[in-house]
Amino acid sequence: AQSVTQLDSQVPVFEEAPVELRCNYSSSVSVYLFWYVQYPNQGLQLLLKYLSGSTLVKGINGFEAEFNKSQTSFHLRKPSVHISDTAEYFCAVSYGGSQGNLIFGKGTKLSVKP
Amino acid sequence: GAVVSQHPSRVICKSGTSVKIECRSLDFQATTMFWYRQFPKQSLMLMATSNEGSKATYEQGVEKDKFLINHASLTLSTLTVTSAHPEDSSFYICSARLDRGIKNIQYFGAGTRLSVL
């Protein structure tokens, strides 16, 4: 079965430190990859997406992610985090040829401390 | 662009009543919308795929008679939780897919917090 794994359920980090949130997916010929952010009691906001082309994608709020096909990974990074980045982050995959259904990881809670 | 509005944001109701949640695509047409349920500190679980003008497709384990979905227009889908019980308390989120362009991109509403007393 197709799946998405977010290896870390919680990531605590100090303000202005770099952060990486990990995401791996089960292998497939073609995938579309997404990172969403969810602030408390809110819906999901699209951070960035990989559809095709360059494997390094840049998103909003200074985040970026790199698609690594050989490792079936799509890790999210930010060189310097802010307190306001504290939120839940979800990795999601949509498989090519599908009807667009998203498969979500379980989420990573990023906690930025002063 | 690509804004999805979900209403209400929060609802508290008595056990046995029905609750309707609306999901609207404000600036685009969406033949397909999705309804998710999110339990505390967990990921989103797809409940059903809503298709304009046809019956919704429910995921395994989701009671279609409990969670009624109506997608009567290209910009509106509704989820009705019928005869709600405390175990139906949850965070419900809808999303909409653009009819034009990449079909694998979904835009999400802000969610509805349902509390059944």
Whole-number average pLDDT of chain A?
91
Q: How much is the radius of gyration of chain A in Å?
A: 14 Å
- Overall 3D geometry of chain B? globular
Tally of DSSP β-strands of chain B:
11
Structural category of chain A is mainly beta
The count of DSSP E runs of length 2 or more, i.e. the number of strands of chain A, is: 12
Radius of gyration of chain B: 13 Å
Count of DSSP helices of chain B?
0
Report the β-strand fraction of chain A as a percent range: over 45%
Could you list the spans of chain A in which at least 5 consecutive residues all have pLDDT below 50? none
Word description of this protein:
- The complex is a heterodimer of chains A (about 110) and B (about 120).
- Chain A has about 110 residues and is mainly β.
- Chain A is about 0% helix and about 50% strand.
- Chain A has strands at about 5, 10-15, 20, 25, 30-40, 45-50, 55-60, 65-70, 75-80, 85-95, 105, 110-114.
- In chain A, strands 2, 5, 6, 10, 11 and 12 form a 6-stranded mixed β-sheet that branches. Chain A has a 4-stranded antiparallel β-sheet with strand order 3-9-8-7, with no helix packed on it.
- Chain B has about 120 residues and is mainly β.
- Helix content of chain B is about 0%, strand content about 50%.
- Chain B has strands spanning about 5, 10-15, 20-25, 30-40, 45-50, 55-60, 65-75, 75-80, 90-95, 105-110, 110-115.
- In chain B, strands 2, 4, 5, 6, 9, 10 and 11 form a 7-stranded mixed β-sheet that branches.
- The model of chain B has no long low-confidence stretch (mean pLDDT about 90).
Using brief descriptors, characterize the structure shown.
A: 114 residues; mainly beta; six-stranded mixed β-sheet; four-stranded antiparallel β-sheet; 12 strands; 0% helix; B: 117 residues
